[in-house]
């Protein structure tokens, strides 16, 4: 069933209401992201992609300048910032009212992007590996996506809940208000771990925080179906359906239109009395 909780995020003084699931569209400005069709580097490609995200119903544009796929090439801080600045200028020009999230684990990058291009969400897939990140987002009052990215040593879900609980408490102590939880599908997890987390996704509702799910075209789908990222849309749609029914508030996706269709159909189903 659709999440009955209504969450609120303060985006630069404007409230984003999560009364039903919303979609975060991926804008990859890297040359080596795992899904080759998502790589957008020229101005024309970036313009087309941001317009597509907005037109198809995406609520957030997530911009990443550093691929986090296994075996990806290391990117210097200077290069990552250069890529993000280039894309942000275009996005702000083409969609000035779009909510933008910055996919980075570097506090210095997050700070500069927020200062130069206004209020943003910080999407930190590392789970706070940079010791300056938690104090930064709290001080600048930036909504923060807290991911779980560490390999599990014992039972995956209890270990995740324990770690996230400690980190949420640390963020709250610093004064952080807006926190989004991301279980980190694909990061430091085996195939079985990924599906254990999906099956137990309701457990993350115990934090009373919005949960973001990012499974779009990932290897957890490819390995089960024996397919490529290009062939993984159907599997992605199935997992999006499961995630929403288990309480996910935000879906981070490559295919905005397909995900919006899932949300609309589930909403229609939930609105019909038996």
Written account of the structure:
- It contains 9 helices and 10 strands.
- The longest helix has 19 residues, at 156-174.
- α1 (43-55) packs across α2 (77-94), α2 (77-94) packs parallel to α3 and α3 (107-117) runs parallel beside α4.
- The strands form 2 sheets. An 8-stranded parallel β-sheet has the order 8-7-6-5-4-3-10-9. Strands 1-2 form a two-stranded antiparallel sheet.
- Helix content is 42%, strand content 16%.
- The model has no long low-confidence stretch (mean pLDDT 91).
- The protein has a single domain (7-269), classed as TIM Barrel (Alpha-Beta Barrel).
- By secondary structure, it is α/β, with parallel strands linked by helices.
Instruction: Profile the largest sheet.
Output: 8 strands, parallel
Number of strands: 10
Structural class: alpha/beta
How much of the sequence is in beta strands? 15-25%
The H-level CATH homologous superfamily, spelled out, is Dihydropteroate synthase-like
Biggest sheet: strand arrangement = 8-7-6-5-4-3-10-9
Give the low-pLDDT segments: none
Total helix count? 9
Radius of gyration: 17 Å
Helix content: 40-55%
What's the assembly state of these chains? single chain
Tell me the CATH topology. TIM Barrel
Based on Cα principal axes, name the global outline: globular
CATH class bucket: Alpha Beta
What is the element string, with H for helices and E for strands?
Answer: EEEHEHEHEHEHEHEHHEH
How far apart lie the N and C ends? 14 Å
